[in-house]
Amino acid sequence: MPKAILYDSTLCIGCRACEGACAERWGLPYNDKIAAEETISAHKLTTIVTHGDHFCRRLCMNCLQPACASVCPVGALSKTALGPVTYDAAKCIGCRYCMQACPFQVPTYEWSSRMPRMRKCDMCYARQSAGKLTACAEICPTGATFNGERDALIAEARQRLAAKPDQYYQKIYGLSEVGGTSVFFLSAVPFEQIGLRTNVPQEPLPMLTWRVLELLPDVVSTGSVLLGGIWWITNRRAEVARKEGPRK
Amino acid sequence: MTAWLRKLLPKITVWRVIFAAILLSGAYATYLRVFHGLGGSTNLSDKFPWGLWIGFDVMCGVGLAAGGFTLVAMVHIFNIKQYRPVLRPAILTAFLGYLLVTVGLLYDVGRPDRMWHPLVMWNPHSVMFEVAWCVTLYSTVLFLEFLPMVFERFGLDKPLEWIHRISVPMMILGVLLSTLHQSSLGTLFLIVPEKLYPLWYTPVLPLLFFVSAIAVGLAMTIFESWHSARAFGRALELPLLASIGRVLAVAMSVYLWIRFLDLLHRGAFGLLLRNRTETWLFLLEIALAVVPTALLYQSRIRRNPAALYFCSVMVVFSFIANRLNVGITGLEAGSGTHYIPKWSEVAVTLSLVAVGFAIFRVIGQYFPVFEAHSPQAGLLEREEREVDPLAVG
């Protein structure tokens, strides 16, 4: 059963424990200075962002049909059956198409390194495979970040919206965005007010390029016949003209 | 300075000084790239991962080299033999262009030591994977199309004969590969509907990229013929270039018409009322395309070498503006950031262009790239050459 994360902004107190747990899981340094950074980067794969009275988390959405995995020329990124989108740094050539393609601008790059890698949250693939919770969900003191099976989390989110209709903006972010993601957001205010992108397409992005790419065999086969045929006709015409000589 | 020393050193001219300055700055930028990574040599960021090296070096480089496949198709497949005199310079431009694109990619890619990975680690769903394969294969085809110039230069008849035997399937393959990756450079951006400004984002991006590549390939042929005529003191093939100018006018009209229909059907014309940077960049790009197209319909303009040259330069600039708009400026607002290339990015780009010009000049001087001819000699040669329509170049 695919896993997911439910982040409930109304429960988040902005303690940043998830940031610290995430840094520890990746072996990254974490201190007050890094805690103050409210952007994700190659040394901070998740962050709490303050929007007035509300908090929001930034992390990889682990989309159901990830644009990053579809554009990667070497297949370094893959969507696992468990849910996480994983990255194989040994394959990566550093073209950064995944960063360009991601509608949430999640993948980051080790810009100052001479042997750079792309960096992003992989929803603790190793931990979840071993039956454990993601590091961020395990440490969260209020249950704002909740880890579990995707279907169960959707049901849970719907229940929360129904139980307290006046406390929630009545939508689940991630249900239909880019065809669905593995991270859901609940909020007290409309999503754009806590910095979530609401202009992303509601259909899976990989379709946009695949619609063109799947024509490739047709273009190649039709093209070779067409060009070969044209060559044959024009060449034959020249041959005939030459054989007939200066008759006219 | 003593006289013998002066004889030994190359004559100092303004162009040589500029050339040396560009290469020096390029060398220092290369040092930065190698020892301080992309962070130390570019202004790229997590929000803006592609810059000048993709937007210009790759996207413009591949397009400006499109004369190679356009003229191969015209001369060898459509059998329009009159364009033969400009075929070899076009093939040489294309070959050098693709070499430089590859070098540019070595700068841009984070792990250039793994450039070969797409050839063994496949992801057929990736446009980038397809482009990588097409560019690799087409560079090989261009090398084979260039080889006859080398074989002729050194009088190697046997290999020349051998290469003529495979020339037809090879040329067809070359045209197909070009069609695929020229359009695929547009397909690359279909994945960013929410980032690319709607004046440029359209589902027909692949078609637009393909048609504009054909047009700019023709413009580059006029451009390089004009320059090599000056550099090598040859007579300009004016009737021939004028006729290419006519084809260019048609290609540009087709391109502009598709562009117009696309904006119309997407209801995007209203965007032009907004006073935004994108509007002005779009208008500049379109003006640079419309003006030469209108001018080239007049035979008076086509037969005037200077006017014909300036029309082709405008088409080239319009093309560059378009690729930069799609690859860089049109993405800035959607990415929520600004990007101005660092000096070292510009230095590498200028160095690649300068090296391209220099190698073209050297090869043009020492290899049979240009056929020495007056228009009459060209006619004679054409009749004589018609005997072997399979010959490459």
Q: How far is the N terminus from the C terminus of chain A?
A: 81 Å
CATH topology of chain B: Formate dehydrogenase/DMSO reductase fold
Instruction: Estimate the strand proportion of chain B.
Output: under 5%
The shape of chain A is elongated
CATH class of the largest domain in chain A: Alpha Beta
Level-1 CATH class name of chain B? Mainly Alpha
Q: Strands of the biggest beta sheet of chain A: in what spatial order?
A: 8-1-9
Mean pLDDT of chain A: 94
The sequence of SSEs of chain B as H and E is HHHHHHHHHHHHHHHH
- What characterizes the major β-sheet of chain A? 3 strands, mixed
Protein structure class of chain A: alpha+beta
> Largest interface, counted with CB-CB under 8 A?
A-B, 59 and 61 residues
Helical content of chain A (DSSP H or I, runs of 4+): 25-40%
Please explain how this structure is put together.
The complex is a heterodimer of chains A (248) and B (393). Chain A is an alpha+beta fold and 248 residues long. Chain A has two domains: 3-206, Alpha-Beta Plaits (2-Layer Sandwich); 215-244. Chain A has helices spanning 17-26, 32-36, 67-71, 97-101, 125-129, 135-139, 150-163, 206-213, 216-244, and strands at 3-8, 47-51, 54-58, 77-79, 85-87, 108-109, 118-119, 145-149, 183-186. Chain A is elongated. The mean pLDDT of chain A is 94. With 393 residues, chain B is mainly alpha-helical. Chain B is built from 16 helices and no strands. In chain B, helix 4 packs antiparallel against helix 5. The longest helix of chain B is centred in the C-terminal third of the chain and has 31 residues, at 305-335. The termini of chain B are far apart. Chains A and B meet through helix 3, helix 4, strand 6, helix 8 and helix 9 of A and helix 2, helix 4, helix 7 and helix 9 of B.
